[in-house]
Amino acid sequence: MTELVFKGKEFVWNHHLAVPFRPLVMQPDKGVGEARLDGNLIVQGDNLHALKALLPLYAGKVDCIFIDPPYNTGNEGWAYNDNLNAPMIKEWLDANPIGIEDGLRHDKWCAMMWPRLRLLFDLLSEDGIIFICIDDNELYNLRLMLDEISGDPSNWIGTIVWKNVTDNNPTRIAVEHEYIICVSKKKESVEKIWKSQFSDVKDLLVRVGEEFAQDFPDPYAMQSAYTQWFREHKSELWPLDRYKYIDRDGIYTGSQSVHNPGREGYRYDVIHPRTGEPCKQPLMGYRFPEETMRDLLAQDKILFGDSHDKIIELKVYAKEFLDKLPSVIELDGRTAAYELRDLFPDRRKAFDTPKPTQLVEKVLSYATRRYSIVLDSFAGSGTTAHAVMNLNAKDEGQRRFILVEGEGYADELTRERVARVQVGVPGATAEPLKSGLGGSFTYCTLGDPVELDHILTGEDLPSFDALAGVLFHMATSQPLDPARMDEARAYVGEAGGTHVWLIYRPDLDWLKSPEAALTLSFARKVADARPDARHLVFAPARNVSQRLLDAEGVPVEFVPLPFALYRVERS
Predict the structure, then answer these.
(1) Using one digit for the tens of pLDDT, what is the confidence trace for 97-119?
(2) DSSP state, 514?
(3) Is residue 61 packed enough to be buried (19+ CB in 10 Å), middle (13-18) or exposed (0-12)?
(4) What is the dihedral of CA 365, 370, 376, 382, to 10 degrees?
(5) What is the DSSP string of 174-242?
(6) Contact at 8 Å (CB) between 475 and 536?
(7) Phi and psi (nearest 5°) for 445?
(8) What values do phi and psi take at 401, rounded to 5?
(9) pTM above 0.85, yes or no
(10) How far are the Cα atoms of 36, 280, 356, 432 from residue 436, in angstroms, in the given order?
C-alpha cells in the first residue's frame, strides 16, 4: 500500500488520542422540542473536539458520514488551529491563514484532516460509509489518506463526478466538476447493491399515468394520448425514456430481464396469444422456471411482440423503478443559493458555498436506511440535515442527523436553517416552507475538558454523566447508553458481557472519604446480581485487595481513578 508522506505526519499520527474528552452541553432554549442527546443534534465547537465528545455516545453507531471540508484552493482563508505542542511543528503552523502562495498548504491540509478522519472512522459502524466532497487540489492526497486510515485500499467504493457548472472562461481545460468520494469502514459489510426508490422522473410518470387513466376510460385512447405526450417529453425523461406504454395500472416498459444471463437457463414454450405459435426463446433460455412464467402470464406481466418471432419481455411499471447511483451527477450548483434565498428571504446572501440539498439527498437516498444516523462534521449551512429531513418526509423514515460546526455562524445560520426547515419560514406562503417538515433537534456546545488528573486536586471536577461516558468508552470501546445508567447505584452500563461501575461524586471531600472506596460488600452486591459476568469498578480508592476478591470468587476488577487513561479491555 502506498504511504502518504507529509510534513508533520509524525506529530498528528495519534493526535486524536491526545484530544481531551469534552462533554456535550445541551442548550434547550436553542433547539426545537425536548432536549436530548439521542436525537437530532447540532454541536457548536471545533470539530476535532466535537468528534471526540461524540465518541462516548456514538462510537461505532454512525451509519453514514457526509462532509464537505475545505478544498484548500488557497483562497478559502481556513486556518490550521489544532493545539499541537511540539515545537518543531509549531514553527511551520504559525503561518495562518493558509494562502495560495504557502508552499506547505497541502501539508497543513493533510495535518488538519488526518486526526479528524481517524475520529470519523472510530464513529462509523462496521457497515458504515463516508462521503467526502473535494476537488483536484487535494483529491489524490485524500485518497491516499483514506487508504491508510481505513487500513485497506479495497475499502474504497468509488468516486462520483458532480458536474455543477458551465465554465465559459477561456482556459486550457474548462473545469466544470467536483468530486464526491466514497469509502467504507469494512467493504464486505456494506450492501452489495445500492438502489433508491426516489426519482423525480419516476414521480412524474406515476402522476401522469394516474391522470391519463382518469381522463381516458378507453385503453386505446389512453395509449394514443400518452404516446403523443411521450414523444413531446422523451428528452426530459432519462433514465425512464423507454417507458412508452400505459394501461390502467400505470406507465410501463418492456424489460429483457426474462433472459438468463451468462449460462444456460430454463427451456419451455411460451405460446403467442395471436399466432398460436411458440415465441422465439432467448439465446441462453429463460431465467425462471415454467411455473413462474405461468404466474406472470396470469398477472398480465408478459409483453408479446407483433408476432412469435420476437422474444417476449417482462412488463415493468414506472412505479416499480429503483434508481441506481450514477458515477456522474449533473446538477446546477446555483440551485443551492436559490434554496437558501427561499429559506432566508431576509438576507441578501446567507452563505458563500452551499451544497444543493438535492445533491446530498440523492446520495443519501442510496446509502442510508430509514433508521440511519447521518453525521456531518463540516456542517456549513446545514444542507445535510435538510437532506435527511427531506428523505424522512418522503419515506416516513426516522433517520437522525448530527451536525458539527465550529464557525461563528453555527447558531445564526446552521441552527436557524434547521429550525426553519422544521417549523416553517416566517412570512412564507408556499408549502413546505410555510408549515415546515416537523421534527426536533437539540443544540449543544462543548463543556470543559474531562481531565481525570484533576480529580487529584479537586479542580474542575466533571459530572458523573460526563466522566461515566468517557470511562465506559475507554473500557469497552463502545458507546454508552444513557438510558441504562443509574447514578444512584453507581452503575454505568454493559458491553460485551462486561458491566462497568463508577463510585464517584463531583465533590472533593466525598472523594477523600471512605464512601468513595471499593469495598468487599459493594463488590459482592454487584457480582451477586450477575455472577457470570465481568465487572469493572472505577473508584478513587479501595478497601479490598484484588487477591481477596479473586479468592472469594467475586468477578470484580478495581480500576483506580484518576489513573484510568488507558483501555482496560482484555483480549
Answers:
(1) 455 555 678 888 898 899 999 99
(2) G
(3) middle
(4) 80
(5) ---EEEEEEEESSGGGS-S---BS--HHHHHHHHHHHHHHHH--SHHHHHHHHHHHHHHHGGG-TTSTT
(6) yes
(7) -115, 175
(8) -115, 150
(9) no
(10) 21, 55, 18, 5
